[in-house]
Amino acid sequence: MDILKGKRYDIMNVLWEEGRPLSAFEINDIAPELKMPTVRRCLELLLKENLIQVAGTSMNGKAVSYTHLRAHE
């Protein structure tokens, strides 16, 4: 995927490897070297690029989980 570079690629790798929807907090727990502001900003960019989608929200509506749209090549 030519469009993915840097931290966005790292976040997509976490989503691909886990194979399930993850929240920003879960991504940060799995890859603590990715700081929370970076994770949130990259998720916003990945959503705009249509590479991920919102998979659901928590019961309180505060945590959003994301899943990838394209298979890892």
What does this structure look like?
The structure is a single chain. This protein is α+β, with helices and mostly antiparallel strands and 73 residues long. Helices cover 45% and strands 18% of the residues. Strands 1-3-2 form a three-stranded antiparallel sheet. Strand 2 (52-57) and strand 3 form a beta hairpin. Helix 2 crosses helix 3 (36-48). The longest helix is centred in the N-terminal third of the chain and has 13 residues, at 6-18. It is globular, with a radius of gyration of 11 Å. The mean pLDDT is 86.
List the helices and strands and how they pair.
Layout (H helix, E strand, L loop, with lengths): L5 H13 L3 E2 H7 L5 H13 L3 E6 L6 E5 L5
Antiparallel strand pairs: 1-3, 2-3
Quick synopsis:
This protein is an alpha+beta fold and 73 residues long.
Tell me the fraction of residues in β-strands, as a range.
15-25%
**Arithmetic mean of pLDDT:** 86
Q: Name the structural class.
A: alpha+beta
Order of SSEs = HEHHEE
Identify the overall geometry.
globular
- Percentage of helical residues? 40-55%
How are strands sequenced across the largest beta sheet? 1-3-2
Radius of gyration from CA coordinates:
11 Å
N- to C-terminal separation?
7 Å
- Helical segment count: 3
Compute the number of strand runs: 3
* Major β-sheet profile: 3 strands, antiparallel
As residue ranges, the low-confidence spans are none
